[in-house]
Amino acid sequence: MATSTRTGESGPAVRRSAFRRSRGDGPFRFVSTGAGIVLLAVMAAIGVFLVVKAVPALQANTSHFLTEPTWQPNATKPVFGIGALAFGTVLSSLLALVIATPVAVGVALFISHYAPRRLAAVLGYVVDLLAAVPSVVYGLWGVAFLVPFMVGPSKFLNEYLGWIPLFGGDTVVGKSMLTASLVLAIMILPIIAAISREVFLQAPKMQEEAALALGATRWEMIKMAVLPFGRPGVISAAMLGLGRAMGETIAVALIFPATFTISFQILGPYGNSIAANIANGFGEATEVGRGALIASGLVLFLITLLVNMAARFVIARRKEYARAAA
Amino acid sequence: MTTQTGIQMRTGIRPISAARRATDRLVRVLVYLAFALAVIPLLSVLWLVVKNGIGRFDIEFLTHSMRNIGARDAGGGAYHAIIGTLEQVLLASLIAVPIGLLTAIYLVEYGEGGRLSRITSFFVDVMTGVPSVVAGLFILAFWILALGMPFSGFAGALALSILMMPVVVRSAEEMLRLVPRELREASYALGVPKWRTIVKVVLPTAFTGIVTGVMLAVARVAGETAPLLLTVFTTDSINDNPFDGPQMGLPLYVFDQAGRPTDTAINRAWTGALTLILIVMLLNLVARLITWWRSPARRR
Fold first, then answer.
1. Highest mean pLDDT out of A41-45, B238-242, B256-260
2. Containing domain of residue A10, as a range?
3. d(CA A289, CA A291)
4. Out of B23, B193, B258, closest to residue A254 by CB
5. How far is C-alpha A161 from the geometric centre of its chain's CA atoms?
6. Are residues A100 and A229 in the same domain?
7. Per the CB < 8 Å rule, is A130 touching B42?
8. Strand A71-72 relative to strand A79-80, pairing
9. How many domains does chain A contain in total?
10. Could you tell me if B278 lies within 8 Å of chain A, comparing CB atoms?
């Protein structure tokens, strides 16, 4: 058969290619497709098993899981809810986003349009190094350095800007929501900066040059040609950063004061998040306690899933960004 | 700038107004400031880790565990944690690299833009966003609670592999796409079947790039703490067997020591952090070196 296809010049091309595929290609295609399916199965299994293990604890709960702020799943009459934790997660991540995004956009612009060409790659690598520092190291740095350091600035903010509800309150501490958000901001900055940088670099060169030729200053050129092009990319980068901030665990577990109070006073001794509570509460959790932590993890999983899918959707809509976010 | 004003004078166009120039300057200052702001925390972290960690970075730290050493006692080390981290990361790579690489091969060579490949590609992206603590919870719920397995280094490796997979897929996919189409076609023209073309031509060509991607993925998971906390638990003793009983990991060790309220423990945490950063940076550096060493070779 092999010789006949090789010598048979007149044989149809289709049959030859079909022959080529039939030898050993089937198993290999099967295995590699299988690997892709395994990956999908893992994603599905994450959801399924979290639900399965959360349900018994939720049934034992004597309060409403979505609104109750306290967390006492280890008591004989378990009372727990996601209220305060979800609030802390969302507030700290949003604060981190508000702090990090402008700086990250500045960094991205610096590397894409301001830094000398030769230096740009090296400087970009320096910013990427921020992402290489393990989160537990940020946590240690936060506890040992940033928490005592933030007492001064926090008192200052409280004294002069105390009329803004966020900075109000009578007790001002270093171990606060603001400090945790700052650490989160540092951790998500390299992600937002890296994606924004790639998007800014892809801005059409012709339009940039046209703007400059018409006498625009560099900033006017960026405002006219780069930022409008990059806006969707920056938005989705910020959303990916938001997802990362929400899931960040160890650094904030060391910094948050781990209370279960819902308070907007970001300088006070309040604050906690779903992820931090899992890390801090796991050691002494009973069976119901573990189930409760798993239930809270399920909520975190769903929130981050939504945020990430939305971000990916924004990126996928514009094909030219697809590479930048990889 | 000087050439611009020269042109303006010759053509008679009025110079840029003071306000516009001031705005331009202001933005320039802000952009430079943003970069400085981003670098300050990095320098601060690295400086403090080196300054506080170097004191206990000695032979005893690298060769002793924390067995029978209380929070107040001096001495003790992270030997058990280093062993744990190496075993867990190795096991995680053994699981994640084959699955990730095969998925990348599927996406590039067999997917052909079909529905399954688009869904897989989308969920690989989504998977990169799964919080590490959720990966840990999943292994806790599935492996430890549902299957009744003990806390072990292997359970931790399973959790880490979930975090590694999407990173490996993305980097391997990018490298496979860089392999020139002509190479594949030349191989087909010689009558080589597709799977042998992939194994003998495509993979060797992309090899160094894939290795770089894997090392970056390893560097990323080596610093993860949260999933280990939920699956490996903690121990102060040496446990060489990753398949049975609680182990330690270097990030876990830092977290554990940082939570103890004495100076000797905090110092051990800093030294642990220094060791961890050295390992992660080394992996990053080796990965970059491979890419750098590779790039002139490609031009030849």
1. A41-45
2. 2-60
3. 5
4. B258
5. 30
6. yes
7. yes
8. antiparallel
9. 2
10. no
